[in-house]
Amino acid sequence: MIPVREAVVPAIPGTPEPGWAELCDTLRDLFEELRVDWGTEGNGAGAAIQLDRLKSRVYRVRVAAHGGHSFVLKRFDPWLARRNELVLRRWLPALGLAAHAPRLVTTAAERRGEWVWHVYEDLGDRALSTEQPDAEHVGAVAGLIADLHVRATGHTLVPACRHFCGNLGAPFLVANLRDAIAALEALTPPRVDPSPEQGEVRGRLLARLYHLRDELPGRLRQLETFGGPDTLLHGDLWTTNTLVSVADGGSSGRGGGGGTVARLIDWDHAAVGPVSYDLSTFLYRFPRSERRWILELYREAVARAGRPRLPRAADLNQLFETAELSRYANRVIWPALAVLEEHASWGFDQLAEVDRWFEELEPALPV
């Protein structure tokens, strides 16, 4: 835990963070708006301000003044910062869901334009449990996901989201499959001289991707037939990105005057596509024995909105598997390119991990 009064002006000790000086100027302006007393340097007066590093590029800053304030600081590439800003300041408000995501308080751009810092309200760390999922909490999150999908379907924001963020349906599968195969096929002498074990990993992954390429026409037909219309997707629905809080008073629900309130954070992968992409990510995070009733909570929420029922379980399994395989193909590309371009020693280790994912992939739902 680092006192911010010592860290705000130069940089985080021992941590190269571009744009930190610009961020500190922005934080000073924010704290002045909050009427935080910085005190006089060295005299011990003023607000107690603390900084914690949460993970790479992400920090929490706490200000013990006027009841306390807490913010999350996150550093982005400019294009990714723009995506998050559009989601939080334009698209979610247009859907009436602004209260179910963190508020983007302010931003700070590094002077060369290479990085952008976002300052968010801090929603805490109350993520869904996957080991012992609570039905009320899971229901609140499933209902929020359904609200997102239903409200965005057919909305005029979908073309803009597709333009800025892309499509996580068929285009995502086709592009990742093509790029993953090309990257693996390039891992040969003279550019790369893999060991026998590394060559086996490469060979197994190529065989899996060639097989997926052979299946591609059928999978694309299934997406066209059962995937439904494009909608706004969160794009990264791990349970760590789903927060649940319990407000005082009122009945349970997804927001409002009390009860269980669900929120979604980290919209870095937001895009358009079929609902099966988000649902597959979410369901695969839970034990297989729990997925049926979790899916039913989503089905019920969609039905309450008067939207058509989801496909049967067997068809959903195919859609979920296609989404998962498209993510696996994507995860092949980057370590393979790191080996090609940087001779990164860790690249083949990550490729071996992805190969294990292919081997262990199971249907999301028991049929």
List the SSEs and their pairings.
Elements: E1 2-3, H1 4-7, H2 20-33, E2 48-55, E3 58-64, E4 69-76, H3 78-94, E5 104-109, E6 116-121, H4 135-152, H5 157-165, H6 170-185, H7 196-226, E7 231-233, E8 242-247, E9 259-264, E10 271-273, H8 275-283, H9 291-304, H10 313-342, H11 347-360
Antiparallel strand pairs: 1-2, 2-3, 3-4, 4-6, 5-6, 7-10, 8-9
General form: globular
- Please count the helical segments: 11
Share of helix, binned: 40-55%
Structural class by sheet pairing and helices: alpha+beta
Number of domains: 2
Based on the structure given, which CATH architecture of the largest domain is correct? Alpha-Beta Complex
CATH class membership of the largest domain? Alpha Beta
Could you please say which CATH topology of the largest domain applies here?
Aminoglycoside 3'-phosphotransferase, Chain: A, domain 2
Strand content: 5-15%
Q: How do the SSEs run, as a string of H and E?
A: EHHEEEHEEHHHHEEEEHHHH
| Straight-line N-to-C gap | 50 Å
Largest sheet: 6 strands, antiparallel
User: What would you report as the Rg, rounded to the nearest angstrom?
Assistant: 23 Å
Poorly predicted runs are 1-11, 39-46
